[in-house]
Amino acid sequence: MSDLDKAIAQLRSCRPIPEDQVRELCHRARELLIEEGNVVTVTAPVTICGDIHGQFHDLMELFRVGGDVPDTNYLFMGDFVDRGFYSLESFLLLLCLKVRYPDRMTLIRGNHESRQITTVYGFYDECLRKYGSANVWRYCCDVFDYLALGAIVLGASSTLSPGSPEDDDTEIEVCDQAGSIISRFPRQPANQSSQEKLDNSNKNTVDKTGPPGTGASGSSSGSVGNPTGAILCVHGGLSPLVDTVDKIRLIDRKQEVPHEGAMCDLLWSDPDEIDGWGLSPRGAGFLFGADIVKVFNHRNDLSLIARAHQLVMEGFKEMFDASIVTVWSAPNYCYRCGNVAAVLELTEDESGTGIFQRTNGDVGRSSGGIVEPRGGPKNGPARRYRVFQAAPQDSRGMPAKKPVADYFL
Ligand SMILES: [Mn+2]
Q1: Global pTM?
Q2: Which is nearest to 241 in space by CA: 205, 282, 277, 274?
Q3: How far is the CA of 209 from the centre of ligand 1 (A)?
Q4: Where is the Serine/threonine specific protein phosphatases domain (predicted)?
């Protein structure tokens, strides 16, 4: 067993690794991350995760529900640390897995992966408490500076099950943590948004409302982006300074998160029911409306933006005709919010019309292989949400004092 595998085993049991091993790990991680562009290219299948916030036992539950590494490819959209009591173990485990399986683990930066924020919201204190010095916090912050700002997922299928017939028109499937299907939504040509479909449905029934093929052969009236376009993953959202994905690629990201500007906005912004741009109550980043998302997706050949950053009680929330989704992966946030968590599974397109090879460099989002799928335009990737609850109380050694929940951070 290599030293790295030993470290992974130790961290999986929620025991910190020695300081010199952290130093070595962070050094190796930085050498890997420095080679990645600001926007990492990832090929489906991949499971997309939102905020973790140091809830180590719930991260273990996430792996149990979503599949273990390296059997499942993961993309974590930041906010690994702060709030929870095990930021150190959570982040170091993810970092070990990144170094051990670099092509199967993608980590992008959240607004909490910052010196200033971790000093206030728990990670700094946790490192000091567990090591007696700030060295480990410093090593981790040096890694934060090298994390990518976003990812582009290519090659996601418009049907959920591999090898499924072309008339399998399931667009959204929601599963519980045992893997049972809670609800299933077919593709519909109508203008009704998928969130409306979700809201209107009786979540205890499994049904397909329309005749077979209804959605798959529908018009493109419900889609505003490229129907077979890529999925952009980013922690917070969009920026008024960024109208193309290529502009994200030009940012000098290897620094502390600035207080303003494009890099700050990508990590801090939120979608909202407004027109255009608005001021954010967080004091950093912006609010942005449906029109902003739809124009951005269209211009950049995107079918969907996946982001994290906001607590949603149901674990995920699609907005703006399914042009953007919030994924939240910290169940019972801060051990008190009572929410469930979710991960988003995107399956691999095996239809032969959209296979992409992973490359190490940045590739064009719409290059090579994107052709109109058989059966006409579709509304982007099929999505399977796995919803899960917090790990059982007896699986964790829980300190008595709960951290303060703060909606805005
Ligand atoms: Mn955040």
Answers
A1: 0.85
A2: 277
A3: 37
A4: 108-113
